[in-house]
Amino acid sequence: MTQNTQMIEELDDCFLRTAGNIMKYYDNEEEKQNILKQLREVLIANCMESARIKAANEIKEHLECMSEFDSEEDVKNITIEYKKAISEIQVNPLQDNRLLEYDRQFKGLYQVNESNALDDIDADLRLTGSEINVIDPISKMRMTDPVRNAVCGHIYDKASLVAMLQKNKNTRCPVVGCTSLDYIDLSQCRSDIVTKTYLENHLA
């Protein structure tokens, strides 16, 4: 995982934690919804800017590989081409994986913090009886630092997962019935704020 990727993931976690705190501590429903809307708009703007920067870097690298800078005229032409390519970058933040993941976990946070659960919440975030599943599928113990596998969506305790991968890095998801054939990649397992918030609100 690159430093930039880690920073983005930490930023996204901050957005989710902020959303959770707003849900938990704001009593005025109208004010709460307005602030949550503004928070999502800030995330959308950040997703757009990140996507533009990524696209710009890809264009720059491509042009550098394709071009030779033998004269001042070459530099001028490549600069014109670069500016033109930058101006044509199209970004759709509503399809950004960061925003999609935020929306998914936002629904889970809403369920954890509000008494009226959303009807369209993901099946794996629904309450089983009255609780979210907090048992780690690896250790069979209560989780303390839940992480979600981005490939299959299953959640494990981070310490148990790290210990398992240290023994055998070529390990598939241990959840019974999981259809993923990919080996677990720790870099694709991110903190699951929904489960973590539930654990914090429902101490053992």
From TrEMBL:
Keyword Metal-binding: yes
Keyword Cell cycle: no
Domain SP-RING-type: 121-204
One Pfam family of this chain: zf-Nse
Pathways per UniProt: Protein modification; protein sumoylation
SUPFAM superfamilies: RING/U-box
InterPro entries with a match to the protein in the record: Nse2(Mms21), Znf_MIZ, Znf_RING/FYVE/PHD
Homology family: Belongs to the NSE2 family.
Protein name per its UniProtKB record: E3 SUMO-protein ligase NSE2
Source lineage: Eukaryota, Metazoa, Ecdysozoa, Arthropoda, Hexapoda
Chain's gene name: 105619160
